[in-house]
Amino acid sequence: MAESESQEENYYNGEKMVENFNTDMEELLDEMEKLTVRAAWMAYNYVAIQTNPGPYNAMQHLEDAFLMCKEQMEKKWQEVLLESRGEGQKKE
């Protein structure tokens, strides 16, 4: 009786191991697919930039301008917050 229970446990454990293996393999394959697509896009972008650097340079300029604008907006926002806190204290 104990031997048949042990065989059932071994079968169950083996079945679980196969399921876990299949799940792990599917996850790894999905990750590999994502990485492959990402690498393909990187290669495509590299060729596009080398062929015609104008759009890349324009995007770089726009990104720089955006970051400078964002920085200025954050500074102004901090000033507004400080002014509003100062006025709130004066009224009290």
UniProtKB/TrEMBL annotation:
A GO term from the CC aspect: central element
Cross-referenced InterPro entries: Synaptonemal_3
A Pfam family assignment: Synaptonemal_3
Top-level taxon in the UniProt lineage: Eukaryota
GO biological process, one term: spermatogenesis
Protein name per the record: Synaptonemal complex central element protein 3
Organism: Lonchura striata (white-rumped munia)
Gene that this sequence comes from: SYCE3
